[in-house]
Amino acid sequence: MWKRPTLDTKFQIDYDWWKAGGKDIRVAVRGQLCPDCQKRFPDHRNTEAVDWVDPETAEVVRADALLQCLRSECAKKPDYINQSTPLVTNVFRIFLRDGNQSLTPVELHRQIPWASAESLLRTLTSGTVYMGIRPAQLD
Q1: 1 domain-assigned
Q2: Is there a domain that residue 5 lies in?
């Protein structure tokens, strides 16, 4: 049953939305890289999976090179989330950086303090799905 999203509704990137639209999310991920990293990856193709060591668990996993570059380099720059970047792009970057962990508009507001939780909710529920960001399908 459909429920109107509220400030307590969790959102995340819906990867099925990308597939259903015939879009490659890796193109969008590459677009979120800083200029230096974009030079390292001339396109979203022909990038390798890399071994990545989880800093908390020391577990080694295979990871997407674009996402790992974004998380380990681009996301650490002070302007990764900023007021001059479109609001939905900032939200998309947060989900990419944090492994698509679902967040409420209130939780997103803590990371984007210049946008109220209410304006985040309005933007994310405006009727148009931007960058695949939708209410999370929680089990």
Answers
A1: no
A2: no
